[in-house]
Amino acid sequence: IILDTQNSRKRKPTSSGAANSTGTGNTVGHSPPSTPSTHTPGGGIPVASNVNIAQKSSMVCGADGTSGFASSSNQMDNLDSFVDFEDNVDSFLSNDDGDGRDIFAALKKGPSEQESLKSLSLSEVANNRASNNKVVCCHFSTDGKLLASAGHEKKVFLWNMDNFSMDTKPEEHTNFITDIRFRPNSTQLATSSSDGTVRLWNAAERNGALQNFLGHSSHVTSVDFHPKLTEILCSCDDNGEIRFWTVGQNAASRVSRVKQGGTGRVRFQPRIGKLLAVAAGNTVNIIDIDTDTSLHSQAKVHSGEVNCICWDETGEYLASASQDSVKVWSAASGQCIHELRSHGNQYQSCIFHPRYPKVLIVGGYQTVELWSVADNQRNVVPAHEGLIAALAHSPLTGSIASASHDRWVKLWK
Ligand SMILES: *[C@@H]1O[C@H](CO)[C@@H](O)[C@H](O)[C@H]1NC(C)=O
Ligand SMILES: *[C@@H]1O[C@H](CO)[C@@H](O)[C@H](O)[C@H]1NC(C)=O
After folding, report:
1. pTM of this prediction?
2. Distance separating alpha carbons of residues 63 and 299, to the nearest angstrom
3. Among 60-64, 114-118, 194-198, 217-221, whose mean pLDDT is lowest?
4. CATH number belonging to domain 61-412
5. Ligand 2: which of 14, 141, 182, 185 to mutate, judged by most atoms within 8 Å of the beta carbon?
6. Atom 6, ligand 2: which residue's CA is nearest?
7. What separation in Å is there between the alpha carbon of 211 and the centre of ligand 2?
8. Which residues contact 105 (CB under 8 A, 6 or more apart)?
């Protein structure tokens, strides 16, 4: 792969195959200084320091009476969400925004949702036990050709989906890696670590980290790239501090804070990137990045820590998983439109099915559950011998990956 020093987002996508975006390699030190595009309305990151996020309204979950906020208006919302439940589910299910993406074609053409779940399972395609310790995070590159995973071994593992060969990055983090995310359309990826740093790597090069982002004063628990302004990434730590970084720049461009600490998770809304979902402790917040205000937040969305948050492909729905339940939220209203209660498994991870947008895959101890939101049916699939700490999907290839404390990473279709 030939690397150049152009900033990839300025170039037209190439049709050449392998882990596209050959050009993102050497942006560090060569990338132009922060361009005006990072400040465009509808996705730009205004630069500010130490801004506390104003809490404008509350998330309300209709499906869980114990978690509602005390205010009477919220209780009203709570009632409404019960009344509107069928409508909400219907709109969730008719997830057709008319952009003709083939991802949804399978469902439209296929059998009814119920039948499809009955026949829907996961088959193991490949696996690796390259890590000698717990694996806690995994993510596919945009083109689906690489799966990156990491965890307690403190190293990045790269799994080539064409020939299943493994590669690793030098061990530079000095504590557990907590999250791993590819930059969109790129071979670059970021890791967050309990050592307090975020690092940027290039999977297409054999060398170590391209950049080390310093600033968090505690364990960094999650990281994510903006889906459009891909030079921007966001990380959070277990004190509820959120930092926005720009590739090639050392200092954080913005620092925000959510009220609660705990194991934080950050995930940008896909496609648009206007919203950032932040989980901290047992709260879930949906933050408007332009105004740095919290559109929806709820103090006790879950009875336990939120272990995972994930968006559906459209960016309209957010799912959150805690040990005893998974909830699906509408980003527009902040309402919980559906809930899956555990039958005893400890839910740790979740991801929307890459082919069936109304099916959520939930990872727990040893098993994954395929949950059809339509009819609340679930299929339980044995998958690992330990906790399934992370799930990933590739909408492009339809692949699903699971990473577990049992040290295995597995690939499913
Ligand atoms: C697998 O494919 C990649 C390119 O996609 C290549 O660089 C690598 O050498 C291959 N590994 C093996 C073991 O064939
Ligand atoms: C990534 O590539 C796809 C397909 O080429 C393109 O539609 C999309 O806009 C690209 N995304 C970014 C952030 O460059």
Report:
1. 0.78
2. 16
3. 60-64
4. 2.130.10.10
5. 185
6. 13
7. 24
8. none
